[in-house]
Design brief:
- The chain is mostly beta strands.
- It has one domain (42-405).
- The chain is built from three helices and 19 strands.
- It has helices spanning 2-28, 58-65, 122-127, and strands at residues 31-35, 87-91, 139-140, 163-170, 180-186, 196-208, 211-222, 232-239, 242-247, 256-257, 280-287, 294-298, 301-306, 318-327, 354-362, 368-370, 376-380, 387-393, 400-405.
- Strands 3, 5, 10, 11, 12, 13, 15, 16, 18 and 19 form a ten-stranded antiparallel β-sheet that branches.
- Strand 18 (387-393) and strand 19 (400-405) form a beta hairpin.
- The longest helix has 27 residues, at 2-28.
- The protein is globular and about 50 Å long.
Length: 411
């Protein structure tokens, strides 16, 4: 009997070790440590004489110190073993992404751009125009009534019906140029189906003629890009030379990875508990005043950057904050849209909503300031499925705050 028991324990131990090995292997194969000089971003003609920036300038650190970002120690990221000296971690996508699948936006082949502005009749413009003139009341999705004579024009970020967003954005007609944006995100895990995604997102966009350059970042649950449904640090970019765009550090001429253990594609291990602890991360992208590269930071820690040679030399002409969800594969369409944020509509109760606090942008003189509530407008593309609530200034710690989300469904 004792011998039988020992055999059983030994067998169970082998099974457990096998499972652990498979789990470890799965985590290991998600990233690859590569020479910092040989990563994809630097394998582009424009990068031939590029000098790699390994740390933020003093001027950029000074900018970041003026913001209310939390410190790196408050961030709970899983699997942060360092790559060997001289190497950096590069996340390997779930599938071998092609140009058609590298980003969910499937743009028409002719006369289009990421932030395509379509001409509409005077009546449509009137119905879609909303400008907020008061500081005391929050802007909510409920304010987008067809009866509101001051409705703003639909921003048409994406013209496809399978993509949905709930955002606060700067006005289209502004002449301002921004040198960065940042926010404090709380981390959620919306339940999405295969080939769907849901994000908490910041866009920095520059439009010139028919060409759009964009740097985008935040957290995302993306079943096409990643092998599971966990929220992850995620970035995306387009440039005048790459209008299809690219996620993370996958393409030449794009994002350059610097940090040895924190990287786009890394999992946020702890998510929010509704009504309980809020797990947050402070993310920022700002143009370094010295190098002119666009630097991604968590708190004040540099993670990587987009080189000045290919990205928004004139600054960003538009800044968006909010939620973005949809289908990432048009070949397998779905009639049900994914949830956004917590999966519930936004409320004033920040412990039960997906939020972005401390909304800031960087002015043309590299000053970091709270977003001006008189220079932004809110928009939701489908109020039946999603909502947005711009709470404006909440308190000293939260400052300008946005909540958004929704259950999705038949949108």
């Amino acid at each position: 009997m004792a011998s039988l028991w020992l055999k059983l324990v030994f067998s169970l131990s082998l099974i457990g070790l096998n499972c652990m090995a498979k789990s470890t292997l799965h985590q290991e194969t998600e990233i690859e440590c590569v020479s910092i000089n040989k990563q994809s971003a630097l394998q582009h003609p424009l990068m031939k004489n590029h000098r790699i920036q390994t740390r933020p300038s003093r001027e950029l650190l000074s900018m970041l110190s003026t913001s209310n970002g939390n410190i790196l120690g408050e961030i709970d990221l899983k699997g942060s073993e360092e790559c060997p000296k001289g190497q950096v971690p590069i996340h390997k996508p779930k599938t071998n992404l092609t140009d058609n699948l590298i980003h969910p936006q499937q743009l028409p082949k002719e006369g289009s751009r990421l932030l395509k502005q379509t001409r509409r009749g005077k009546e449509q413009k009137r119905k879609n125009r909303l400008r907020t003139k008061t500081k005391s009341k929050p802007i909510s999705s409920a304010m987008f009534s067809q009866k509101n004579k001051n409705q703003h024009r639909r921003p048409t970020l994406f013209t496809e019906t399978h993509l949905h967003y709930a955002i606060v954005k700067t006005f289209l007609n502004t002449t301002n140029k921004w040198r960065g944006a940042q926010a404090l995100f709380n981390i959620n895990k919306p339940i999405v189906a295969q080939n769907q995604f849901s994000k908490a997102w910041i866009w920095l966009n520059y439009i010139q003629g028919s060409v759009t350059s964009s740097i985008q970042f935040g957290w995302a649950v993306h079943r096409k890009l990643y092998p599971d449904d966990r929220p992850r640090l995620t970035t995306f970019w387009t440039s005048d030379r790459n209008q299809k765009g690219c996620y993370n550090a996958l393409c030449p001429g794009g994002y350059v990875q610097i940090h040895k253990s924190i990287y786009p594609g890394m999992v946020y291990n702890h998510i929010n508990v509704p009504g309980g602890k809020q797990n947050t991360v402070h993310l920022s992208v700002a143009e370094d005043p010295v190098t002119k590269n666009w630097v991604l930071t968590i708190g004040s820690t540099m993670i990587g950057y987009w080189p000045r040679q290919g990205h928004m030399a004139e600054g960003a002409s538009e800044v968006y904050f909010g939620g973005f969800a949809g289908s990432s594969d048009l070949s397998q369409p779905t009639t049900t849209s994914p949830p956004m944020g917590t999966g519930a509509f936004p409320t004033r109760d920040l412990s039960r909503s997906c939020f972005m606090k401390q909304l800031k942008y960087v002015l043309s003189d590299y000053t970091v300031v709270d977003i001006n509530s008189n220079e932004v407008e809110a928009y939701v593309d489908n109020r039946k499925c999603y909502g947005v609530m711009f709470l404006k200034y909440v308190d000293f710690d939260s400052r300008e705050t946005l909540t958004f989300g929704g259950p999705g469904g038949q949108c």
